[in-house]
Specification:
By secondary structure, this protein is α/β, with parallel strands linked by helices. It folds into 4 domains: 253 residues, 3-Layer(aba) Sandwich (Rossmann fold), CATH 3.40.50; 156 residues, no CATH class; 124 residues, Immunoglobulin-like (Sandwich); 247 residues, Rossmann fold, CATH 3.40.50.1110. It contains 22 helices and 42 strands. The strands form 6 sheets. Strands 21, 22, 23, 24, 25, 26, 27, 28, 29, 30 and 42 form an 11-stranded mixed β-sheet that branches. α3 packs across α4 and α20 packs across α21.
C-alpha cells in the first residue's frame, strides 16, 4: 500500500477501514498511531493543532465499522474478532510500507482509544503504549453506557449477561498472555475520574507485573470528570510522544502528582477586580435571534453555583446603554480552561441568554454598539465591568428582511453594527455581471451572475455570503444565495483570480420562492457580506407580485381568538386581504356560545368598555358571525378552542354567552345583568361542559352546512399554550400554571372535536416551537405568540387553501 497524507480507505479481507495519515517532516524512523475514544462520527482525537509540534509520522484510525459506522473498540462485530483482524492486517501493511520494526511504533489513545492502544500495543509488542483512562471491563461499560455498541459487539444469540462476561474477558485474557512483553506502558489516570475505582484500580496489580509499566496519577481540582484527565495531561502526553519517537523510553514508575488551590493567590486576584467576558460561541436561531455562549468571571471570585454571581449584558452605543439579564449554566471545565496561577471554582461562570431565549435583532440600536458584561458577586459592594472579547478573532452576521447585523470580536472588544439594507448605497464601482435572471413556471426566481466587490477577496468557500434583496413599498425581503467557482472565466472578464468564487446563484438551482411576498412592485439587488465589506449592488431587476386574478379569494369565517384572528390582521400579516375574503369573525367567543340562540334580553350600553371589547360582547350576545352571513356561504370555517378552554359559558336558560372575564365580566352593567347566572367551565364541570361542547359542534356544522351537504370545510388550528415568554432582549417570564391548565383543557376539547367532526382539516401548530412575546401588541400571555408563529400559521393556511400568486420579472 502507498501512504499519502490525508483521509483514505483500506480494504481488508473482512472489513474496510477508514484512516488518516500525516507524513512526517523529519528523518525519525517512527510512527505514532492514535486510537480514538467515543466521539461524534467522522471525528478523531488529537486531530487538530495540538500535534503541530510532532514531526514524525502520525496515523489515526477511525473506529467506524459496518453499515451504521458503529464503534467497536476496534475489536468485535457480532461476537467475532473480524474487526481486530482487519486492524492487525492494516497496521502490519503500514509497518511494512514505512519499513519499520514494531519497536519503532508507539500506540496512544484516550478512554476507548486508550483501551485499544493497550490491546494492540501488547498484541503487536510495539515500542511504547501511552494510554489515558482506559476501560478494562469493556462489556460492563458498553452495556451500561453505550447499548448500541454492546449490541454490535456481542454475538446476536448470546444472552446479555453471557455476552458481557465474554467481552469483559478480552482485556484480562490478553494481560495474562502478554505478561512477558517488553513494551513500555504509560497509563495515565486520576482518582477524580469516577471510572478509576471500577476500571483502573482492579487491574493495577496485573499491570504492575509488566517490566516496563509506568503509572501516572494526576490529582487536581481541575480534573472533575473522566474526559478531563487527558486534557489536563496534554503537556505530559506531548513530551512522551517526542521522547518515544527518538526511542527514549523514560522510566517513571508509579508517579502521583497533586496540586491544591492557593488562597493567597486567589485573594490577590480578587483585589485586582479583573473581569473576564469571553464569547466562546455565537449562533443564530431558526427565528433569527442571537444566542450567546459566554464565559463571565471575576478573577479570584469563586462561582461554584448559580447564586454566586449576577451578570448582565450591556449593549453600549451613542444613544446610551441598555442591559439584559444573562442566564447561567454549569460547566466545570471552565475552571480548567480559564485557570490562572491557581485553581478557583468557576463552574457556574458559563452565561447565555436566559433559558436560551436569544436576542432579537430589533433589540440592537442602529449603527455601531459595543458589548460589555457587568458582574457582581453576592458579597460585593459594586459590580465589575468587562468588555466582551474572544480568544481568536471572530466575525459573524445575520440577515433578516431589511436588517443586517454584523458581529466582530477580537481580544480587545466586540462590536455589533446594525444596518438597514434598504439604506445601503448601491455600489456602482464593483464588478457586476448578471448572466441569468428569470421567473420559472413554479413562480420561483432564478439568478446567476458575478458580483465582485472592491476591498476584499473571494477565492475560498465561505469567504463571503450573498443574498438577494427585494425592496418595495409593501416590504423588504432577503434570501440567501449560493456561490460557484468560476475561476476559469476570471482572465477573460478581466477580474483577478482572487475573485474566483464571486459568482452567485440560487441555491441548488431550486429557485427562490416568492409566493410569500406581499403583493406589490419590488426592486431586486444583491448583497455581499464578509469581514471586509458589506455592499449592495445596483438594481438587477424589477419584480411584480400580485394575486392570480383567475382564482377567486377563498371565503373565510374565523371562530376563535387572537390565535387565528391575528392571521387576518394587517398588524401581523400585511397582505391577508389580497388572498382571503373574510365574511365574518368572532373574537373571544366560545363555540358553545356561538352555537346557541341570540340573547333576547335588554339592550346593553356597556359604556365602561372600550370600543373593541364592546364590539366583541355585542357579537357574542347576538351570534352575529352566523346570523348575518346572508347569501354568501363560507368555504372555510377556521377555528381555535382557546375561548372554550379559557372562559366557558354562562347558562341563561335557553341560550349561552361566553363567560369572558376579560370583556363582559369587567363591565359593571355586564356583571349586574349576568352575574347571577350559573357558569359552566371545562376545568370545573368537565363532563357537563364536554357534553354541551359536543352538541354545539353538531349545531355549528349544521348551521354552516344547511341541508347537510358538507361543502364547508372546518379547519381546527391546534395549539398549546407556552410558559416560555421573552422579549426582544431575551428577558424571560413564566406563567406555567396557566399554560398547564389551558393545555389540559385543549386536549380534552380536541378529543371531542375530532370525534364529532372527524373529517375536519387540522393545522397542527403544536409542532411549531413557539415562544410567547412579552412585548405583544395585545399584552403578554401564554397564547400571544411571537411573529414567526403567525407567519408559520399563515403559510400553512395558504397551503391548505392553495392560494396562488403571479410573479414576473419586468426588466433586466
Amino acid at each position: 500500500m502507498k501512504l499519502t497524507s490525508g483521509e483514505h480507505l483500506f480494504q481488508g479481507q473482512k472489513h474496510s477501514l477508514k484512516y488518516m495519515f500525516r507524513q512526517g517532516s523529519s528523518d525519525r524512523k517512527h510512527l505514532l498511531v492514535i486510537f480514538s475514544g467515543f466521539r461524534a462520527k467522522g471525528t478523531l482525537d488529537f486531530s487538530g493543532a495540538a500535534l503541530s509540534s510532532i514531526r514524525h509520522n502520525v496515523l489515526w484510525i477511525y473506529d467506524e465499522f459496518g453499515e451504521d459506522h458503529q464503534n467497536s473498540y476496534y475489536l468485535m462485530e457480532h461476537g467475532t474478532f473480524s474487526i481486530r483482524d482487519t486492524v492487525d492486517e492494516f497496521l502490519n501493511s503500514v509497518r511494512e510500507e514505512l519499513d519499520l520494526s514494531w519497536e519503532n511504533i508507539a500506540y496512544t489513545g484516550f478512554s476507548k482509544g486508550g483501551t485499544a492502544a493497550l490491546y494492540f500495543g501488547l498484541r503487536h509488542q510495539v515500542g511504547a503504549v501511552i494510554s489515558t483512562v482506559p476501560q478494562f471491563f469493556i462489556g460492563r461499560y458498553v452495556r451500561k453506557n453505550w447499548p448500541a455498541v454492546f449490541e454490535y459487539m456481542k454475538k446476536p444469540s448470546a444472552k446479555p449477561q453471557t455476552a458481557q462476561k465474554t467481552i469483559d474477558a478480552v482485556m484480562s485474557d490478553l494481560l495474562k498472555k502478554a505478561v512477558e512483553v517488553k513494551t513500555h506502558l504509560y497509563v495515565m489516570t486520576s482518582p477524580n475520574d469516577y471510572q478509576y475505582e471500577e476500571e483502573i484500580k482492579p487491574y493495577l496489580s496485573s499491570l504492575e507485573q509488566f517490566e516496563n509499566f509506568n503509572l501516572l496519577v494526576s490529582e487536581s481540582p481541575l480534573i472533575t470528570q473522566h474526559n478531563e484527565v487527558t486534557a489536563y495531561n496534554v503537556p505530559v502526553l506531548l513530551a512522551l510522544f517526542q521522547l518515544v519517537a527518538d526511542a527514549i523510553f523514560p522510566t517513571i514508575g508509579n508517579c502521583h502528582t497533586r496540586t491544591s488551590a492557593s488562597a493567597t493567590l486567589a485573594a490577590r486576584q480578587r483585589q485586582r477586580r479583573e473581569g473576564v467576558a469571553i464569547a466562546e460561541k455565537v449562533t443564530t436561531t431558526a427565528d433569527k435571534r442571537l444566542e450567546l455562549s459566554l464565559v463571565t468571571l471575576i478573577r479570584g471570585v469563586a462561582q461554584p453555583d448559580y447564586t454566586s454571581m449576577n451578570r448582565k449584558l450591556i449593549v453600549r452605543s451613542s444613544t446610551g446603554d441598555f442591559t439584559m439579564p444573562l442566564g447561567k449554566r454549569l460547566d466545570p471545565s471552565i475552571s480548567r480552561r480559564y485557570v490562572q496561577d491557581t485553581f478557583v471554582d468557576y463552574s457556574a461562570a458559563s452565561s447565555s441568554t436566559v433559558q436560551g431565549a436569544g436576542i432579537s435583532l430589533s433589540a440592537f440600536p442602529l449603527g455601531r454598539s459595543t458589548l460589555h458584561v457587568s458582574m457582581m458577586g453576592k458579597s460585593a459592594s459594586s459590580p465589575v465591568e468587562a468588555p466582551v472579547t474572544t480568544r481568536n478573532p471572530f466575525f459573524s452576521h445575520v440577515v433578516d428582511g431589511d436588517q443586517l447585523l454584523l458581529w466582530s470580536s477580537d481580544s480587545t472588544q466586540t462590536t455589533v453594527s446594525k444596518i438597514y439594507i434598504s439604506k445601503m448605497v448601491h455600489d456602482q464601482y464593483s464588478f457586476l455581471k448578471m448572466d441569468h435572471c428569470s421567473i420559472s413556471a413554479q413562480k420561483k426566481l432564478h439568478l446567476r451572475g458575478w458580483f465582485a466587490p472592491l476591498g476584499t477577496t473571494i477565492s475560498q468557500w465561505g469567504d463571503a455570503h450573498y443574498y438577494v434583496h427585494l425592496e418595495g413599498a409593501n416590504g423588504h425581503y432577503s434570501f440567501p444565495l449560493g456561490i460557484l467557482d468560476k475561476g476559469a472565466l476570471c482572465e477573460d472578464l478581466g477580474i483577478p483570480q482572487s475573485m474566483s468564487k464571486a459568482y452567485l446563484c440560487d441555491i441548488r438551482a431550486e429557485g427562490i420562492d416568492l409566493s410569500g411576498l406581499v403583493a406589490g412592485d419590488y426592486q431586486v439587488s444583491v448583497v455581499c457580506v464578509n469581514k471586509d465589506v458589506s455592499v449592495r449592488s445596483t438594481v438587477i431587476a424589477s419584480v411584480v407580485v400580485d394575486v392570480d386574478a383567475s382564482k377567486d379569494k377563498p371565503k373565510v369565517v374565523v371562530l376563535g381568538s387572537c390565535i387565528v384572528r391575528d392571521v387576518f390582521n394587517s398588524v401581523f400579516i400585511q397582505d391577508w386581504r389580497n388572498r382571503n375574503s373574510l365574511l365574518g369573525a368572532a373574537h373571544q367567543s366560545a363555540l358553545t356560545s356561538l352555537a346557541s340562540e341570540p340573547y333576547q334580553g335588554k339592550e346593553l350600553t356597556l359604556a365602561d368598555l372600550d370600543e373593541h371589547s364592546k364590539k366583541c360582547v355585542v357579537e357574542d350576545l347576538s351570534k352575529k358571525v352566523i346570523r348575518d352571513l346572508g347569501k354568501e356561504t363560507p368555504e372555510y370555517v377556521i377555528m381555535d378552542l382557546f375561548s372554550d378552554a379559557r372562559f366557558g359559558v354562562k347558562d341563561l336558560g335557553g341560550t349561552y354567552i361566553t363567560d369572558n372575564d376579560w370583556k363582559i365580566n369587567t363591565s359593571q352593567e355586564g356583571r349586574e345583568t349576568f352575574g347571577n347566572y350559573p357558569s359552566i367551565k371545562i376545568l370545573k364541570q368537565e363532563e357537563e361542559y364536554l357534553a354541551l361542547f359536543k352538541e354545539s359542534l353538531k349545531t355549528l356544522w349544521k348551521k354552516y352546512n344547511p341541508g347537510g351537504q358538507g361543502s364547508v370545510v372546518f379547519v381546527l388550528v391546534k395549539v398549546r399554550a407556552t410558559d416560555k415568554m421573552r422579549n426582544k432582549f431575551g428577558e424571560v417570564k413564566h406563567l406555567s400554571s396557566i399554560a398547564t391548565d389551558l393545555n389540559n383543557a385543549f386536549e380534552k376539547l380536541e378529543k371531542v372535536f375530532f370525534e364529532t367532526i372527524p373529517n375536519a382539516e387540522v393545522i397542527d401548530m403544536t409542532e411549531h416551537t413557539a415562544w410567547a412575546d412579552l412585548d405583544h401588541r395585545w399584552s403578554s400571555y401564554v397564547v400571544h405568540y411571537e411573529q414567526h408563529f403567525c407567519d408559520a400559521l399563515d403559510y400553512k393556511l395558504r397551503e391548505l387553501m392553495r392560494s396562488v400568486r403571479r410573479v414576473r420579472v419586468l426588466n433586466h
